[in-house]
Amino acid sequence: MGPITDSGQLPSISYAELRHEDEGVRELAAETFTQALRDYGACRIREHRIPQDIIDKCFEKCWPFFERDPEEKISDHARSGVTRMARFVPYASEKTRGEEHLEEVLQLRDGVYKMGGDWSIEARELIDASEHLHKKCSLIHQTLLECLSSSLGLSRSLTTIHSKEISFFAPSYFAPCYHYNDTLRVPLHIDPTTMLFNFPDSLGGLNIADLRDMTGNLSVEAVQKTATFIPVDCQSGEFVVLGGNLLRKLVGGMKHSVHYIERPVGLSGFHLNYWAVPDMDTRCDFGDKRETVGAYLARVFPSSFGHS
After folding, report:
1. Residues 6+ apart with CB under 8 A from 59
2. How far apart are CA 186 and CA 192, in angstroms?
3. CATH architecture of 49-277
4. Angle at 250 between CA 246 and CA 252, to 5 degrees
5. Is 288 exposed, middle or buried (0-12, 13-18, 19+ CB in 10 A)?
6. CB neighbours (10 Å) of residue 205?
7. pLDDT in the model for residue 4
8. Gene3D superfamilies per the record (predicted)?
9. Tens of pLDDT along 18-29?
10. Nearest residue to 120 (alpha-carbon basis) of 60, 68, 166
11. Which of 52, 82, 100, 297 minimizes the number of CB atoms within 10 Å of its CB?
């Protein structure tokens, strides 16, 4: 069937077609997925085969954990004993180019599920729900890497440099935010990942740059000046794939997604995010500098990777 596109909307690719028994169907779907990343650095994935009850359960368990006093959540994380594998980001504590992220995030690395930890009941139930969705996303991520590798004719599949252990799942909470008049919650940015999966709630808010006519410098500053932005309207049974900067460094001709998040003032809700990075010893060119993925991440995302 190929991609479904609407005016002013991202392409929607069928995951079922990427896994189809007919080779021709698989190849066409892989080509359209690859083209979406060339055009936008992003696309929607439909028919992803993740049971809706797993997604709904994760959203449901977000409420009891996040809708507590900030001090409770900070203390919950601090006493867990597994802070090496889990990170709690308090409201407005992170910035991009001086602009605050008006959200809270519980960032869970794959290995955290095996470690247990001294969590509250609210945290434990959210982590258990996250584990199920994390596992489903990891399998889909491997398939997308393989499809991309096949479509591009790579001699070595991208799956060979992506260990499951360097994947993350992060429920993100957008509080009502009454004391701000601006609807911007997360400023314009590029993710330091290979791919990020975004499962939005009904309020959505993700806006992605239309990069079809842009080449060369795709920095935030360059894109902000010239690109138009597409509000992503996820349909039921879809999530969004966002290509990160590391994908662009690994594979020529790809684009990284440049995006921001807006939300209504006075309303709360969640996004569920999965992302992965290559093995830390993978070497890439970053401008005029060649370094390992581990060194790059320690430099641009030290809060999570400063000691990797």
Report:
1. 201, 270, 272
2. 15
3. Sandwich (2.60)
4. 115
5. exposed
6. 20
7. 37
8. B-lactam Antibiotic, Isopenicillin N Synthase, Chain (2.60.120.330)
9. 999 999 999 999
10. 68
11. 52
